[in-house]
Amino acid sequence: MFCFVGRCLQMSTQYPVVDHEFDAVVVGAGGAGLRAAFGLSEAGFNTACVTKLFPTRSHTVAAQGGINAALGNMEGDDWRWHFYDTVKGSDWLGDQDAIHYMTEQAPHAVVELENFGMPFSRTEDGKIYQRAFGGQSLKFGKGGQAHRCCCVADRTGHSLLHTLYGRSLRYDTSYFVEYFALDLLMEDGECKGVIALCMEDGSIHRFRSKNTVIATGGYGRTYFSCTSAHTSTGDGNAMVTRAGLPCQDLEFVQFHPTGIYGAGCLITEGCRGEGGILINSEGERFMERYAPNAKDLASRDVVSRSITIEIREGRGCGPEKDHAYLQLHHLPPQQLATRLPGISETAMIFAGVDVTKEPIPVLPTVHYNMGGIPTNYRGQVITHTTEEGDKVVPGLFACGEAACASVHGANRLGANSLLDLVVFGRACAHTIADICTPGEKLSPLKPNAGEESVANLDKLRFADGNMRTSEIRVNMQKTMQNHAAVFRTGKVLKEGCDKMDAIYQTLDDIKTFDRGIVWNTDLVETLELQNLMLNAVQTINSAEQRQESRGAHSREDFKDRMDELDYAKPLAGQVRKPIEEHWRKHTLSTVDPKTGKVTLKYRPVIDNSLDAEDCAAIPPAIRSY
Amino acid sequence: MLSILTELVSGVCQASWRPAVAELVTTRGYKGEAPDDSRGDLIEIPLPPWTEKDGETMDIKRRRLLFQSRKRGMLENCILLSLFAKQYLNTMTEHQLRQYDRLINEPSNDWDIYYWATEAQPVPDVYTGEIMDLLKEFTKNKDQEQRLDAPNLEYLDKGSQ
User: Fold this and answer.
1) Per the record's keyword annotation, is Chaperone included, yes or no (chain B) (predicted)?
2) Which end of chain A is more exposed for a tag (fewer CB within 10 A), N or C?
């Protein structure tokens, strides 16, 4: 039986290794991973899905909103209008070929899901019911609110997972549940599979395959306050980084203005719609100063910025003066009970607060990662050099929140995320089916492939330094929260980069306490911390370098967008700036895992759609709503 | 005999997922409009029934349930169940461990567990019992603790691993 041998504390521990061969391996069983696994299995590929969670427990299950698609069931609609909304929403950092692909495919993808058995909510005439959602318009922004969000009551995410998981089982997809993927198996720049730890018995598994799809979700957990589950630890991004490949646009992190302080659970905008107000430590309704008309109902990024400025200027609430208060107790208790029942419960359960008597502590909260593993519109992972442009990494694909196709650019629109999952999960399956056939022979793999991953695992399992996993984690989270949150400015970002660098070094001094190998949660959370740190350093360094404000990245010292032309003025007579002199470009970041040093490069945005005649690309313009 | 019993229980559980056809999902108010849910996917695409793991020692069961309590589909459950596990997991009897295992591993929609714990929706018969009662009580947060986050794991570091 083949074993890796760990050498720690003068002990020689055996890690039995099991090798598997598959036509395709998908890492992650959320909406994107399941759609890819299902598509591959349906096409006859012997597919493995490796996941640290049971599929229906992936973070996709939290999604209650819906999927955007221009079906035109509520009023006339055209996917080109959805295309326009998404390009504009991305603040022209999105790649228009990928956005074209996604919005054009959206109706087909939804109908397909319906055929798989997803019970979309219906109108009285039996058509799929579609509702309004932020940022969705008709006629290129000139025709009013569009209703294109399809949903399954309030459990769209759950239904998606249940349907895809159930269907994929009929095609014999092999699920490896509660297996923690450690690293990619790369050889000569090609991805040959994945190595993972089986949590149930501590064995190591190498999944060899010509096609590896990464669908591991986002990394909200780098921040102190995020709406994400504790499973959002950027494992895929980190695996790609350790393989020496770049991640893209990690500085673009979306914030929701009101998450419960600390816990991070989302408090809906509906509270403010019902009359709730935000106050600072002086009891002042500060939104009156920042948005005299809209006040507490100003757009999300305005509210997020206002709260952050109040805290920065010393008017934050609580013992550490680090959050704001959402006051509801001036509203009649009857109104609270009937119109916002869930809020009262959540506030009591997670903040110990009785909303009829006290305000809820809130903070702008990390909600989504626009950035991730760079891919083309077909789901293939790419690298980029100035001389050769974009180049595909053979054998490697990515989809979902983990990927950056880029359809969301600098800012994501609501209900586009579930769409992203299904369209690009499907795209990965189609691309693999185009370039491979089932049963192809695998190229040989070095016998000791994955050795470093096991050595790392072994080292962490017996780590006996001075700083506990939880200490390092909270240091990282607080640094990100204080230095790279909504409000970004050069000096504060630079301090943050330096602090983060120092925190990265403390990983060498880490201390774990559980020496076991079966169901070792301490070890898994430490591996996740390593992954989070790689995401954190890239995020904060990318943010520090980007000297402009675009979408979710908001710099107080560089308030405007810095494009190749000044789109606020007439274009005639302007000279196009070269790429080195403007910021309408993607950031590509890499890290040396030993030192934590981040290197940044840039890559042009794709401004052409897939077919200029079918869908005209949208030239950049000033973004106003 | 045990296998017949298990099948019976699974059958009851499957049956409990078949709602009356015209049933409306209780709206949660703050999640916006929640149109009718036919639950067609749950009926037409049943997932393989959950089964108890054989041959696990209580110690291993506790370790597994700890991981499964801390890693949930959404934040609310991550915090609630990891705090609950911190309070109760290490002192649960074998019977309670098995109830808890079923509660957190069988339901396919994590939100359901949250709705049952917060008493927003009635608990299906198969999950009623000591553990569900403990969870409901725990959720009420009568001591009004600040539940800022899932607890760090180090409460387990007493050399008792």
Assistant:
1) yes
2) N
Asked if the model's pLDDT at residue B107 lies above 60, the reply is: yes
| Residues of chain A contacting residue B72, judged by C-beta atoms under 8 Å apart | 57, 229-231
C-alpha A587/C-alpha A555 separation (Å) is 16
- Enter the pTM of the model: 0.90
Query: Which of the following is catalytic: A167, A208, A272, A300?
Result: A300
Q: How many Cβ atoms are within 10 Å of A256's Cβ, its own excluded?
A: 24
* CA-based nearest residue to A554, from A303, A363, A313: A303
Helix, strand, or coil here: A123?
coil
Of A118-122, B118-122, B139-143, least confident by mean pLDDT is: B139-143
Q: Using CB atoms, which residue from B44, B105, B145 is nearest to A352? A: B145
Residues of chain B contacting A518 with CB distance shorter than 8 Å? 60, 63
CA separation for the pair A253, A486 (Å, rounded)? 9
Task: Choose among A603, A489, A600: nearest CA to A554.
Answer: A489
pLDDT at A1: 65
Determine whether the annotation assigns residue A437 to a binding site.
no
User: Do strands A130-137 and A145-150 pair parallel, antiparallel, or not at all (unpaired)?
Assistant: antiparallel
Which tokens belong to A346? 């959540």
Asked if A196 contacts A204 with a C-beta cutoff of 8 angstroms, the reply is: yes
Angle, CA A505 vertex, CA A503 and CA A511 arms, to 5°? 85
3-class SS of residue A106 = helix
What ipTM was predicted for this assembly? 0.91
Is the confidence at residue A12, as pLDDT, over 70?
A: no
A243: which 2 tokens?
Answer: 């393989």
DSSP code per residue over B108-134:
S-HHHHHHHHTTSSPPPGGG-SHHHHH
Helices (H) and strands (E) in chain A, counts: 15, 25
Does the pLDDT value for residue A304 go beyond 60? Answer: yes
In angstroms, the CA A332 to CA A315 distance is 27
Alpha helices in A264-332 (DSSP H): 270-273, 287-290, 300-312
What's the CA gap between A42 and A67, in Å, rounded? Answer: 23
Tell me the per-residue pLDDT of B32-64, one tens digit each, with 9 for 90 and over: 445 678 888 998 888 999 999 988 999 999 999
Neighbours of B10 (CB within 10 A): 16
